[in-house]
TrEMBL record:
Residue intervals passing through the bilayer: none
Functional summary from the UniProt entry: May be involved in recombinational repair of damaged DNA.
Assigned keywords, A-Z: ATP-binding, Coiled coil, DNA damage, DNA repair, Nucleotide-binding
Gene from which this protein is expressed: recN
Chaperone as UniProt keyword: no
Family annotation (Pfam families): SMC_N (PF02463)
Limits of the RecF/RecN/SMC N-terminal domain: 2-508
Name of this protein: DNA repair protein RecN
Organism: Flagellimonas okinawensis
CDD domains: ABC_RecN
Coiled coil: 328-362
UniProt keyword Zinc present: no
Similarity comment: Belongs to the RecN family.
InterPro entries registered for this protein in UniProt: DNA_recomb/repair_RecN, P-loop_NTPase, RecF/RecN/SMC_N
Amino acid sequence: MLVNLSIQNYALIDDVSVSFSNGFTTITGETGAGKSILLGGLSLVLGKRADLSSLKNKEQKCVIEAEFDVSKYQLKPFFEENDLDYEKTTILRREILPSGKSRAFVNDSPVTLDVMRALGDQLVDVHSQHQTMQLTDNDFQMKVLDALADNSGNLSGYAHELQKLRIASKELQKLEDFQSNADKEHDYNSFLLKELEDAKLKEGMQEELEEEYEQLSNVEQIMGQLSAGHQLLNDEQLGIVGRLTDLKRALQGLSDFGAEYKSLYERIQSVLIETDDIASELEQLEEGVEANPERLEVVNGQLQQLYDLQKKHQTDSVKELIDIREGLSQKVDEVANIESKIKEKQEEVETITKKVDTWAKKISEGRQAVIPTLNERLQKNLSSLGMPSATFKIEVNLSKTFKTNGKDDLVFLFSANKGSSYGELKKVASGGELSRIMLTIKSILAEYENLPTMMFDEIDTGVSGEISNRMGEIMQQMSNTMQVFSITHLPQVASKGRYQFKVYKEEGAEGTSTHIKQLSTDERVRELAEMLGGKTLSESALAHAKELLQ
């Protein structure tokens, strides 16, 4: 329930704060006084987008606050889901800065506009004049049937399974597309894979083969240099090993004459040991080197195969070839198993489709069951609104297509006069008739939707007299279970409110400002009399106004 609305620096409003109660509240005022401005301010705090034109003073920010009593409504899960503090008295605040930026808050916590809009949709149903055309929309018509049929649970189950079906169907389509394209590539991929598998690739093999190739290709040079090295080390007269041995003997006797001589002797001994070891290793290497043209041919062939594969696959390393091999192996395996995967996915799609169909059938049965009740209530209420011959032709038929709200095709036709043929609402109903039909439907929906507040913006446009009186009574009845506002030009409707507010303009030194105030009983009589007979108040107009309030 809307408890208080505060608006600062918005359009023609400087600073307005107004408190509301439950029941039926009417808002009146002359054309251009600013009733739509009040509704615009409320719409902003419910999540509507704003711009700088909303600011009255372009150098100051616009602040709009709406306080709601949400204690009787099951909104705590929404607050928890959006990580917001739940308060029984919840405040929505919207700020529009001179820079054009907008900020939104719920109980002083910053929120996105989407979150504010989602919460606002659960707090207030604002019905403006242009929204009457919603009545001609098939989705809205279906929503009415679903509300009466209490289809929310069925629609939730249907939506859950439909989402699963769409995902599974996309996966099946991908598999089928893959199969149609893969058949063409399978043989070629298998050929490429066999080439790479035959190469017996492993990381580091290219470096090992290139090293072996260099050795096998230069056997004579290696043998000559090893032999020369061995000769230098082991020559009987000039060999390095022999000369170091002589040096060791020459200095052996000095090791007892001081630490530095001993250290020098030990270093010579170490050099001799290392040199002798090198001489032995050179000898072993020399004995192990031999020409092997057959092995050279094999290594050359393996290297050439690697180079050819790298060129073919446009790579620079064996590791990249291994990655390509693994990728090709996966593709070949996928094609080999694609038939079984497609069959498995088809069975999954079929199973989910049956579940979606089951939910769709429940939804359709619920809709069909409430059509007679909806028809009867529409015709009864419209008869009291001056449309005694209004009849509807409402049918739901299962189609072959899954839609977001079920599997039904809806026929919602209208005839205003006896003997007239049925037609679509937007084609055969006048503006005044649409307003009356919409009010009737909203009054029915109010019994099924747990909405705290409903606001009608001149829904009584195009009607007058007894019909407007009856429209006021319908809104008055709706207010028994919810808070109802009506912005109206009709005294018959205005008089039905438990409370009446007047929106008016005042001109001051700094310009024109819009204000709103709650009217006392005497002020209501005067306001209603002016609405009936104009500014010049006659006794008959005042008497009629008093009669309306009674």
